[in-house]
Write a structure and sequence with these properties.
homotrimer; 129 residues; alpha/beta; four-stranded mixed β-sheet; 3 helices; 33% helix
Chain lengths: 129, 129, 129
């Protein structure tokens, strides 16, 4: 927790993908202050025809580098979220050459009872986390 | 925003897929009243074995045309949602030949701080949107 | 409802996949008490490079059998959720040989107006469900 789901245009090689996931995880660690191994990431790659990402009139041009990131997380403050968006873009620009114009994020919140990390237990309720 | 995620059985050609996405976007524009370029759509295609869609006892027959649509959105009224379900089915029937019996929708709501459309900013908070 | 989304490492044959989905559905029926045909399941398979599942420091080892299950559901009690996590692991261990260390679940809740199962109607609002 959080769970990060990345939707990307297909074509990255394994190294580039790993670099991207590492960069995103650093942003999670910095902005959300979670444990280092609190890392749950899923990547889905698509043909360009399968991702439509416009700009709500914000005049933002998208490229084949587009990253749509969905985050499922326990509640985070507005400050944490804003810090995450900024940090994520810095990480992706610096380490992956992905422009901040190609980074879209949507968060959905849930609560302690909504997570089980294994053993059939809700670790935020049992006191294990 | 909203973000629409479509899970479909594989096999549509690019034109058919584009027609489907256009139809769904018209329903979003009409029912949610968002800006024209507020368009974020992701399509995932599956083998039939990878989608199980029954009917909760409603006696609804499904076909290979099945559309499972997940919507992540800021809060919408019940009236808006009901209007969207109806409009979506009309659009998909008229333009794609998809029966209203093949259209399943699930919405999840979030709030202003949960969206970043680029530049590492939360545009619903900054006043840009 | 609920909608279950499974992210798995690729490689299961159709029979193994069906067994997994059946096992998960039995857990839903038992723990959430929904109608038998309240079954909505989507499977996405991935290369190992596309799923990163660590353990938040819980010292849980993951294997290629890893199951990341996302559930979108109307509100469930904490007791129901905890029962589901346990039952799911028992089912997957017994029928699929999947260890409880390989089962991660994240729930997201929505409400009555957020579901349409066909016909463009919100069946939890119309009285059909």
């Amino acid at each position: 927790m959080p769970l990060l789901q990345f939707d990307l245009i297909e074509g990255r090689n394994p190294d580039a993908l790993q670099t991207l996931l590492d960069a995103a995880h650093r942003a999670v660690l910095k902005s959300f202050g979670v444990p280092k191994r609190d890392r749950y990431q899923i990547v889905r790659e698509h043909k360009p025809s399968h991702m439509m990402t416009q700009d709500t009139g914000l005049n933002i041009a998208r490229t084949q580098n587009i990253v749509v990131l969905q985050i499922t997380t326990r509640p985070r403050t507005t400050v944490e979220k804003q810090d995450f968006y900024k940090t994520l873009c810095e990480e992706l620009q610096t380490h992956c050459g992905i422009a901040a114009t190609d980074v879209i994020v949507a968060c959905v919140e849930n609560t302690d009872a909504d997570w089980s990390f294994g053993h059939g237990r809700a670790q935020f309720l049992t006191g294990e986390l």
